[in-house]
Amino acid sequence: DVLAELAAICQRRGLRYALEETMRAAAAPSDPRWQQRWEHAVEALGVPVHRMPSGAGHDAMKLHEVMPQAMLFVRGQNHGISHNPNESTTSDDIELAAQAMLGLLDALVNETST
Question: What is the mean pLDDT of the chain?
Fold first, then answer.
C-alpha cells in the first residue's frame, strides 16, 4: 500500500524515486506467559486490559531470539502518534505503567520463590 501510494504521488508530481531495501526482519512474537503477566499486573490496578495485535520491532526483534519478551503499551495522546516529536502521554498513565511494572516484578519474585 505504501509503495503504491508513493508511485501515485510521484506520478502526480512528475517525480521519480528509487527504493533500496536495506533490512528485512520479521516482527518479534510476544511470549504468551509474559503477556499474561502483564495482563495480571494491569488488572490488579483495576485498569481494563486491551490486547493489541503487535509484532514488536526494534530491540524485541533481536531480544526474542535469546529470551522471551512481551510489552506493555502506554496510552498515548495526540491520537496515539508514535515515533514522532508529537508523541506524548500523561503523567497519570506513566504512573500506572510504573505501578504495573512494580506489580509484575513483585509477582515474578513470588512466582520464582515458590
Answer: 90
- How far apart are alpha carbons 1 and 42 in whole angstroms? 35
* Residue 114, pLDDT above cutoff 70: no
Predicted pLDDT at 54: 66
Give me the amino acid identity at 76: G
Cβ-Cβ contacts under 8 Å for 79 (sequence gap 6 or more): none
Distance CA(110)–CA(42), nearest Å, equals 17
Contacts (Cβ under 8 Å, ≥6 apart) of 16: 10
C-alpha separations of 40 from 22, 26, 64, 73, 75 in Å? 39, 28, 21, 14, 17
